[in-house]
Amino acid sequence: MAEPDVYDLKGLKCPLPVLRAKKRLAGMLPGGRLWLETTDPLAAIDIPAFCTDEGHGLIERETTAEGHRFLVERGSAKKI
Asked: Is 51 an annotated catalytic residue?
């Protein structure tokens, strides 16, 4: 399996990290993985909630010196 791409969302404030992640994940195939890197402190709440709401898997999360990293797996379809 290929190493997941990294999507740099550093410097963006709420709601932009979630909106951009949503757009990027929409263009991926189900099962694809993507690292999201953020500096917005609210991303620690927003990204997990976004994954739950949209049916994506939050595989891993890390706190970094700059902020947070989230490994997200694209879900098969949006929950209704």
From this structure: no
